[in-house]
Amino acid sequence: MADEYIPTEDELSDKLWRLTNLYYITNKSGEEVLFKLNWAQQELYHKEWHQMLVLKARQLGVTTYFSINFLDDCFWHGNVHAGIIAHRKEDAEDIFKKKVKYAYDRMPAWTRTFNSATNDRSGELAFENGSSYRVSTGFRSGTYQRLLVSEFGKICSKSPDVAKEIVTGSLNTVSSDQIIAIESTAEGREGYFYEFSKTSEILAARGGKLSPMEMRFFFFPWYEEPGYRESSQELIVSRETNEYLDRIELERQRKIDEDQRRWYEMKQRMLGDAMKQEYPSTPKEAFESANEGLYYGTQLSKLRNTGGLCRVPYDDALPVHTAWDIGLDDFTSIFCFQVGRGGQVSIINYYENWDEGASHYCDWLNKQKYRFGRHIFPHDARKRDIGAKTQYLDHVTPLLEGKFVVLDIKECDKLEGIQTVRSMLARCVFDEEKTSKAFKHLEAYKKVWDDRLGCYKNTPLHDEHSHAADAFRYLAVGLKGLERKDNSAADSDLKAVNKYYGY
User: Fold this and answer.
1) Three-state SS annotation for 422-445
2) Rounded to 5 degrees, what are φ and ψ at 374?
3) What is residue 236's DSSP assignment?
4) What is the pLDDT of residues 273-313, one digit of tens each?
5) How large is the greatest C-alpha to C-alpha distance in the chain, in angstroms?
6) Which of 87, 253, 412, 444 fits 465 for a cystine, CB–CB 3.0-4.6 Å?
7) Fold of 9-220
């Protein structure tokens, strides 16, 4: 690394010149090289905005770009305060040590005549010009002109409380001359990162000028990266992969050549279902295929891809059954479904509400004008009351036609019920309008994340999605275990599906 060259005043005042001539990084091979902007980094630089959201494939240098960019702002401008929020403590330490501090320590010696760090303790740089730079897992206090939230999708998925703290705290510490960047691979169809992504994508499609409070959307797919190629002709691309990439070519109006197809095939064999999450071709598929930690992610993704979320009309020749998860000071969730004689389970309607009595839900059901068959309740329907010495079931039975089934405690076991749901989902269809909220709840139903062990526990997370998931579990278990003591028309459809499954 040579320090002999002293730049001209014009060069030194040019940020792009500084970025590509003063900072060193380690490349993917572990070699120390001068930082040069790749295609994704160039787009971020030339389209910089007050708020930026980056949905991306892996290993495109987005975190590296913002690390160097913010360091440059802090070093060459006084009183600029920058921060990076990482997913985990180890990630924060790694970003600071290997990206920020690494680049600062290797700046040419002559730059120290302009500015230098007065404090370079772990996770923070403080400069003589009054600027500062911190890397941590979150911070509320202080005002920041530059802020990056790295792998925000993972934070939202694994630590929703931390994500909320970042949105309500850290994102509000940035001043009006701010640059906020949020970057991540996708992690499921829920949480702040998903919602921010969809909103900013809609704004991008709409076109027009953004306000400083609106996010500019960036999507970096795998096929734009020149290094994602495989030249070995011994690797045969499957028919399924070729057909999929043909569809992507048409949708994205982008040629995908043979070397890229071989690379995709090779990666897909290694990553399986995680391929579209880690190396997406479209924003939509990135979120639909993120299944880590989700109980029904794989099954529901297949349903989406095979048309299982569609228009499902009410069949007045068949009875409508309901499945309930009841709550007193919590959500009550109700599924309405029919079972065809071929074994198909049609989810035709869904309703949820908060802190309402039994009569409210019965009124809603009666307004649907269905012919009811069975109403499936969890075991606590015989225990709960609404301020009186009566069971919850006592309030419902006078108000609804049909037969009532109450599951026992053993039948309500969560993990066994989850397996029953998984086996049933392949034969389900969901009405895309009336059950869209329920479908999203089921997609987001996940395991508890263990920060200490760095993995998911096999324990369901109790959140806003778990009520619908519990009701659907009762649906599956109740359908499987119903006793059929007569040959009534109301039971004939249930017999058909149980015969189909061999129950």
Assistant:
1) HHHHCCEEEECCCCHHHHHHHHHC
2) -115, 145
3) P
4) 788 889 999 998 888 766 678 899 889 988 988 899 999 99
5) 94
6) 444
7) Rossmann fold (3.40.50)
Compute the half-sphere exposure of residue 31: CA atoms within 13 Å on the CB side of its CA.
4
Burial of residue 345 (CB within 10 Å: 0-12, 13-18, 19+) is buried
Q: Report yes or no: 307 and 428 within 8 Å, Cβ to Cβ.
A: no
Q: Which helix or strand (DSSP H or E) is residue 147 part of? A: strand 144-150
Q: How far apart are CA 499 and CA 486, in angstroms?
A: 15
Specify the higher pLDDT residue, 271 or 373: 373
Every domain of the chain with CATH number 3.30.420.280 lies at: 309-501
Higher-scoring residue by pLDDT: 71, 413: 71
Burial 447-477 (b: 16+ CB within 10 A, else e): bebeeeeeebeeebbeeebbbbbbbbbbbbb
Class of residue 163 by CB neighbours under 10 A (exposed 0-12, middle 13-18, buried 19+): buried
Q: 329: which 2 tokens? A: 């000071």
Q: Give the separation between CA 280 and CA 276, rounded to whole angstroms.
A: 4
Of 293, 289, 290, the C-alpha closest to 458 is 293
DSSP, collapsed to helix, strand or coil, labels residue 129 as: coil
Structure tokens at 113: 């005549």
- Show the tokens assigned to 497: 């599906």
CB 175 within 8 A of CB 206: no
pLDDT digits over 87-133, tens only? Answer: 889 999 999 999 999 999 999 999 999 999 988 777 899 999 999 99
- Dihedral in degrees, nearest 10, Cα atoms 273, 277, 283, 287: 80
How many Å apart are CA 187 and CA 39, to the nearest integer? 24
Domain 309-501 in CATH 3.30.420.280? The answer is yes
> Residue 336, class by beta-carbon neighbours within 10 Å (0-12 exposed, 13-18 middle, 19+ buried)?
buried
Q: C-alpha distances in angstroms, 422 versus 300, 369, 472?
A: 9, 30, 11
CB 260 within 8 A of CB 228: yes
Task: For residue 382, give the amino acid letter.
Answer: R
Residue written as tokens 């630590």? 159
Residue 427: φ, ψ to 5°: -105, 15
**Per-residue model confidence as pLDDT tens digits over 415-465:** 999 999 999 999 999 999 999 999 999 998 988 877 666 677 888 988 899
CA dist list (Å): 431 to 220, 345, 367, 422: 33, 11, 18, 19
Contact (CB, 8 A) for 420 and 477: yes
Fill in the amino acid letter for 306.
Answer: T
Q: Which of 341, 275, 336, 270 is nearest to 495 (CA)?
A: 341
Residues 6 or more apart whose Cβ sits within 8 Å of residue 316: 371
Every domain of the chain with CATH number 3.40.50.300 lies at 9-220
